[in-house]
């Protein structure tokens, strides 16, 4: 049975194609619903990472693994 969370994780990856401020990502993707831990799952799988930009703003970006997964998803959709 396919994991119902994976399409949402893929949507998050698509949304974070370019780095976004951490606060913006949390506003959009963090949830208190234990059945939809999209942000937590993406982190657990190593698909996204946080870091600070030159101005010191915490950013969320795709990891290499996240970029490869997004590319694979796009290839299947094409």
Describe this structure as you would to a colleague:
- By secondary structure, the protein is of the alpha+beta class.
- It contains 4 helices and 3 strands.
- The protein has a single domain, classed as Winged helix-like DNA-binding domain superfamily/Winged helix DNA-binding domain (Arc Repressor Mutant, subunit A, Orthogonal Bundle), CATH 1.10.10.
- The longest helix is centred in the C-terminal third of the chain and has 14 residues, at about 65-75.
- The relative contact order is 0.20.
- The model has no long low-confidence stretch (mean pLDDT about 90).
Brief descriptors of the model:
alpha+beta, Arc Repressor Mutant, subunit A, about 80 residues, three-stranded antiparallel beta sheet, about 50% helix
Could you give me the name of the CATH homologous superfamily? Winged helix-like DNA-binding domain superfamily/Winged helix DNA-binding domain
Total number of beta strands? 3
Please give the order of strands in the largest beta sheet.
Answer: 1-3-2
- Please name the CATH architecture: Orthogonal Bundle
Tally of distinct domains: 1
Q: What is the number of helices?
A: 4
Low-confidence stretches: none
Helices and strands, in N-to-C order? Answer: HEHHEEH
Q: Give the CA-based shape.
A: globular
In the CATH hierarchy, what is the class? Mainly Alpha
CA radius of gyration: 13 Å
Let me know the average pLDDT: 90
Strand content: 15-25%
End-to-end separation: 24 Å
Classification by helices and strands: alpha+beta
Please give the largest β-sheet. 3 strands, antiparallel
CATH T-level topology: Arc Repressor Mutant, subunit A
Residues in helices, as a percent range: 40-55%
